[in-house]
Amino acid sequence: MERKSFLRTFAVAAAAGPLLIEACKKDSTSTQTDSTTTTTTSTNGTTCTTTPTETEGPYPYVGGEITNPLNRADVTGGQTGVPLAVNFLVVNVNDNCNVVTGARVDIWHCNKDGYYSGYANQPGLLGSKSYVGETWLRGYLLTDSSGLAKFTTIYPGWYGGRATHIHMEVFVNSVLKKVSQLTFSETISDAVHVSTLYATHGVNPIRNANDSVFGDSATDLALETLALTGSVSAGYSGTFTLGVAL
Question: What span is annotated as the signal peptide, if there is one (predicted)?
């Protein structure tokens, strides 16, 4: 896909009262090495497509996710929420959709109340919060022999102006190959966000199709939506294919 530029704006979610946070948006200044879309059909009939490129967003790990020292599968860090297991499958769209082993996958996202670790003075539903020095809901893994990086986390909450999402980056041989974001079915997000631990915040009024990152392309949105199985009581799980061009 081609990278797009968006005006940096501020948005207030009507259901969130005073919640006001600058939205993560596509940014023409983001450093990316893989911004074109390629779809490949392998010799065994498997199809893979380059994951759309998105902005890193305003809350990466302090100093950049590449400096993140947290090599860990469980990134929960004591945060409460509906359990979420996400397996990232990294494939090379330029090599017959073969899996990429040893790729570094970084993820980070907000907690159930819409705040990120590592940052001060974040406005939100619960007022301005500072989580400097905290590292929850952040981490990285290297893909295994099957091309998988398997994370345990919680279902993200949301903050004003953005659909519910998780940030991710892929490095191969220490070179940044993909910056993107993923989202979820609104049916599942809505069910989670009215459940006990999330109920104070409630349903996210920003729909995926209206989101500043996901809403510009229905094709990209389909590639950025993680299919999940499970329930609020049992937790959810899914596998997200990250297509990179190497």
Answer: none
